[in-house]
Amino acid sequence: MYKSLRALVCAAVLCFSYGAQAQNIGNAPYSRYGLGEYNYNTGNIRNAGMANTGISAANSFQINTANPALLYYNTLTAFEIGVNGEIKKLESGSGSQTDGTANLSNVSLSIPVSKRWTTALSLRPYSSVAYEVSTTSQLNPTATATEAYKGEGGISELYFGHGVRITKGLTIGASASYLFGSIIKESSTSINDTEIPEARGESVVLSEKTKYNDLLFRTGANYRAKLKDQLFISAGAVYSLKADLGAERKSSFERRDFFGAVKEAMYADSASSKVNIPSSFAAGLSLDNGSNLTVAADYYAQKWSEFRNFRGEQELADSYRASLGAEYTPDANSVGNYFERITYRAGLYYGNSPYEFNNEQIKDKGFTVGATLPFGRSTIYDLYQLNTAFGYGTRGTSDNGLIKENYFKFSVGFTVNSRWFIKRRLE
């Protein structure tokens, strides 16, 4: 088992390195602002199936990094790897288009250090940028001007968390994350004139590549109490401290031909600055029967109005997200019916995104479903699970010159739980 798990970890790291570069497929026009589209799912695929709830919903066989205090409940060594994807239809007053994307969502490993302490490592996207927008206007009867905006890249998060039990029912946690990545943004102008065919397709491009890196700290707590037989209540909270990302930007003006090849580099410059990520707060409440049913509700808020970009400009608004989710396993020990051993999940969410245009803040709402399917030969030493999550949602509106997104998301991943530190007797 150890050799197989080591091989999985190595393969996961290699795949994530590729996935971090390949995550920029598709068109997400709102990712043009701030640091891109923020990854709300700081947990795993289990959380994704429950509308990303999980601040107070612990699970012994899933690595819940949404609240570091819940890591305490992972009493087995666990390894997770997952991929996610999205199919998105963009609608505006002038037309519509459909795009898709797929990338590795997370690689996580949790290890119980003692009976009261579990630690975890995770690598996941923090934000992503992937947009391409262009507009064309008529200058005169023979000439048109095209303005194009393109961006790609994102920020990854290397997470290191700890969960510790203080007393019966009370656990606390803390995590430190290293944020790193680069975002490339280009804006170009090209003029096509039928009377000047030799200049057709040429453009002047402002290219800006910004590298970001710094540390992000979170603290969490959770308290679980028994209300009566087969009914427990849990309350959790997570506070993310403000972070100032170091930013180094290289910019240049370039003249390019129709195929994008650089014909002339006219100006190049580099500069350094700070980009601040505002603090955030999340709270959750959940009920469970201590066996096979959990219902959870979360609320998340972040003061993105305090965000300042590389130039010190404000371009975002305060955001919030409310979600409700549940999971149910008919009979985890069923022998004759496999479907009774499956864990089923569903959830709803609604909130304001950080984007605001024409005095209208972009809203995001949708629903999710998911399941965990046991597979392989599970023993007291090893447990194998296939995790799935699916969601459909809408964001924004096509009114007032804005863009509406209708999206379908899916996630698939594996979880392996293993008892590593057991002294076995030789008969």
TrEMBL record:
Keywords assigned by UniProt, alphabetized: Signal
Entries under SUPFAM superfamilies matching the protein: Porins
Signal peptide (from-to): 1-22
The protein's name in its UniProt record: Aromatic hydrocarbon degradation protein
Organism whose genome encodes this protein: Pontibacter populi
